[in-house]
Design brief:
Blueprint lengths: L2 E2 H8 L3 H9 L7 E2 L5 E3 L1 H15 L4 H9 L5 H29 L11 H8 L8 H8 L3 H10 L4 H24 L6 H17 L5 H13 L1 H10 L3 H16 L1
Antiparallel strand pairs: 1-3, 2-3
């Protein structure tokens, strides 16, 4: 089966002009032509386009993509292994960024006492202070925000590392419960939701069940939080939200 340039553009979410350009530079030349001379792409062409778009998404320039795809020593399985490694690196970075956003949205100035070197060590090259304005705009008038800002103002590098390690541990156990098939309304999931609330109490501010359920909804509604949880395990954002809600209901 072959496809027209318009059909391929629709499949891949690119423009026809992009496909014409790829053909002109020899990056993706269609395997066939119609009787009228129009480009026709077969399944092998679509596979190559998929690999091109993957590398482009990760920021590779077109000339490097061509080298990667046309290396005679690289078979399709090697491309898959390389893509897996690159995706894993991207996921790790997104997790770091999402964690920093979460902290920044709960405090006015994260790591205010950290040196630039310490901040880099804790958060990588993602600066959570950049999100302080958004956090203040959304929650600056609340008691929880004021308490969080007061408490975190004295946090050291070790304090932030401890807070992050606790959060990662809770999220890993949520992911394990989800993988095991335990319902979000199970005793184990609700107890873990309560532990999550306790982590907020101990790290930032007094987290009521009402506030906790609002946070749970935000984990699903705000794509930054959703992306973080989904990177840990697909479906985890909704699972954590549902466990938080179930725990709040039983405590009501």
């Amino acid at each position: 089966m072959s496809h027209s340039v318009g059909q391929v553009a629709g499949f891949a979410g690119v423009t026809v002009r992009t496909l014409h350009h790829y053909d002109e530079i020899g990056l993706l030349s269609p395997s066939g032509r119609s009787s009228a001379g129009h480009r026709r792409y077969d399944d092998a062409d679509l596979d190559r386009l998929q690999r091109i778009l993957f590398y482009r998404e990760l920021g590779f320039p077109l000339d490097e993509v061509a080298v990667l795809l046309d290396d005679p020593a690289t078979d399709p399985r090697e491309h898959l292994r390389r893509q897996h490694a690159l995706l894993t690196d991207r996921i790790d970075r997104l997790q770091q960024m999402a964690k920093a956003v979460e902290h920044a949205m709960e405090a006015k100035k994260m790591g205010i006492n950290l040196t630039p070197e310490e901040k880099f060590e804790v958060f990588g090259d993602f600066d959570p202070d950049e999100h302080a304005e958004e956090a203040e705009r959304r929650w600056g008038g609340t008691d929880a925000y004021k308490e969080s800002a007061r408490r975190t103002a004295s946090y050291t590098k070790e304090d932030w590392q401890r807070v992050q390690a606790q959060a990662e541990g809770i999220n890993r156990r949520f992911a394990d419960l989800l993988a095991s098939g335990a319902p979000a309304e199970s005793e184990e999931a609700m107890e873990l939701a309560e532990e999550h609330r306790g982590w907020i109490n101990g790290s930032y501010y007094f987290c009521t069940y009402e506030i906790h359920t609002c946070l749970g909804e935000m984990y699903v509604a705000d794509e930054r939080f959703t992306e973080y949880y989904e990177a840990v395990r697909p479906g985890l954002a909704v699972y954590v939200r549902d466990a938080i809600l179930a725990n709040a209901v039983r405590k009501a």
